[in-house]
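Internal ticket #5521
Category: modeling
Description: The requester needs a full-assembly model to guide mutagenesis choices. All entity lines are attached below as received. Residue total reported by intake: 881.
Assigned to: D.W.
Attached entities:
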Amino acid sequence: MFKRSFNRLAQLLVTLLLVMVLLFVVFYVLPGDPVQIMLGVDSDPERAAILRENLGMDGSPIDQFVRMFTGLFSTSNPTKSIRFDVAVKSLVLSRLPVTLGLALMAFVMVILLAIPFGIMASRRPGGTVDRLITVGSQALLSLPGFFSGILLTWVFGVILRMYLPGRYVAPQTNVMGYLSSLFLPALALAIPKLAVVVQFQRDRLVALHSQEWVKTARGKGATERGVLFRHLFRNSLVPVVTTLGIVLAELIAGSLVVEQVFRLPGMGLLMMTAIEARDYPLVMGMVLLIAMSIVLINLVTDLLIRVIDPRLRKDDPDRLNPHQVLGPVIADPNINQDVPVSTQHSGGQR
Amino acid sequence: MRSFRNSFVKLGVKSLVVLLASALMWSGLAACKKTPETKESLSSEGSSEVIDGGAVVVGVSQEPDFLDPYLAVAAGTKEIMYNVFEGLIKLGSDGEFVPGLATEWSWEDEGKALKFTLREKVQFHDGSSMEAEDVVHSLKRASGLLDGTAYIPALDIVDSVEASDDGKTITVGLEDVRPEILIYFVTASILPSDLKDPNQNPIGTGPFVFDAYRPQQDVKLTRFKDYWGEKAHIERVTFAIVASLDSAMLELQAGAIDIYPYLTASKTEQLKDGFNILSGSSGMTQLMALNNAVAPLDQPEVRKALNLAIDRQAVIDLVGDGHAAPIFSALSPVMKGAFDPELTTEAKVEEAKKLLEKADLKDGFELTVTVPSNYTYHMDTASVISSQLEAIGVKVKIEPVNWGTWLEKVYSGREFQATVIALTPEFSPLDAFARFRSDAADNFVNFSSAEFDKLYQEAERDLDVDARNERYKKMQGILFDGGASVFISDPHNVVAVDKDLGGYTFYPKYVQDMASVYYTDQAEADRSLER
């Protein structure tokens, strides 16, 4: 298991490096010079030259790239943001509490709401409850982040006057303030993602309902609740956890729009400004961080599914490939599934 | 059949309940902090007493670039830091020069030197007193005598800055006579001479002290208790950086922002209750710049034709809801005395068509107008103009580009046919005319007129203000007749100001003066501090 992870990691690091180089090239080719953008309509060639020197923008492109890349990690000679005149590392890290907090809060909301509703919908497929939940979640899916954001701000801020928009409180200042300033934005961010997870959870459970071993369990005299909790739910988890990993990555990326509407100083907002200002050191620093966090999420997801489903572990006698577990479910809910986890370990059907 | 209550369903329902409950609770807590709305206060209806105290939030759309006033180029930065830094001279709301850190000044040596008498007992924000050496240091920095780079290019003409022995006066020596140079002593801010890194530590003498800058969020200022002049009324100002106009509207309506300038006409409709909508000029000049070096615009008749085909008032009414003054040359009407009010014309479509015929373009031509897409005002203007130009057979193609691309391609590279943009010159006709000289580095329209250049050089040195104004009028005529570009209007600054605030003042300069603003209601002032 570790060798696989190590290989994966090595591959990803190489990809990261290639991405950095590509980004650098793109910025060179793209019209728009960061120094000129800063100095604007009243720029003076002398001032421009001084600024360029200060920012280390002299020398060959390869020199600049190497200097910039190594500077992203160093404290003694840090790469500075062209636009904001501070070290890229500290600027990007200072944005983490916002973006990460937002993504995590939205993630928790998605889990707390989507999974139970997915389960509820799967109890009686095609029934009223199921239909309501499906239609409801599809409706929410169509609400883009900025629209729900504006709507929530309008309802809670303007009409009900319960919320003062545009305020962000850092966690160091006041933890309650921090959480409440992220609450509505997290909700706006979570809403479109709820549908995906609800649907997925529901579909996965419905697919398992009609399995032989479920009937066996029911026949054995297990209660509905027992069947659900001990057998169905855990078996449905692997694809759901994988989806949740993707959702978390999307939440991190999707925070951009929500940060704009609610004026939260997160990475999304910074990224937009950095690109507009052609501040390529800053963009690189952020891309690096985002890429690293996605790698991390992938690794954790990988680990987690192996914890949930022992068949995916290397040392299991009936070792399976994740594709065999994830595969056909989405396409055909009635397909005859593999031996489930719980009954196998209780010596069940083969 | 059976209704099932298993743990997960319960969890789902519980989560919803918890979410709702926490939302209500937290809003309840928030509500508790607010004092009840006592509009029936003791003060009578319509009283506008000047309350001392309170906090004001001003929304601005541009992120500050440098806090150091000599490095700052963005108009948005100067708008904010105007409250922190001061120069020897200040500009009054009518454009008149008012004593700032100098109590008086006079020309010496037949106009080749300026003597300033320094104000005494002025304190910097860090508690130190302003001395002659601070002024000398700042002025030297501005004029390039310190490190070779003139941070205020027009002050390059300065060749010496000296303090008198008693430290009460400063004499600035010029290489040549420059009567209009006074305006630059408004912008040359005075900082402590021993200040390291003004960009991290902006210390000035103004009515507000810099408190903090959170990138992409806000700039916070607090009232300076030891200010030499009339102290500010409000205690705290927060300049909230709100790039999106829609977000700004929500925040205005929710009471999170009190003042928001540069609104568009459509937005002001939504703000009628709770806000006063004010408008005034900031001395800007909006124009459709024409590249004089590119065909068919290289023919003066064609440029003149475009000038005559545009109905400026229609543009003003449609785009700015009437809040603008039409202009026909590079000067804004705020420059009283220099501005030529006689230089005006109605749209003359027939004459324009005749001019095009003369230029052998009877069937019109195609014109590409490149517009920076982040400025809605200019995008809308381009649309209105394009429909007006259809009448003379000119087919307009609007090409939106982002700001960075505009600066590189259009402004520096001069790779364009026409573009719509607004300029923010200093409050001096020469500053507005400067870029239209043949050899100006920023002459992105490629205009060239020997007579214009000659008049400029003469006006630069003429000590007689009436003679200068005569020349300025001629220069405006040359720009118009020569079709340097199509000058459209001075778009006024439309500001929404909370009804409980008074004193908002306009200047012929891109600034937000917070020292003159005050609350008119004590309860509101107190409430504002809790935000």
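Resolution: model delivered.
Comment from assignee: The first strand of chain B starts at residue 55 and ends at 60.
Ticket closed.
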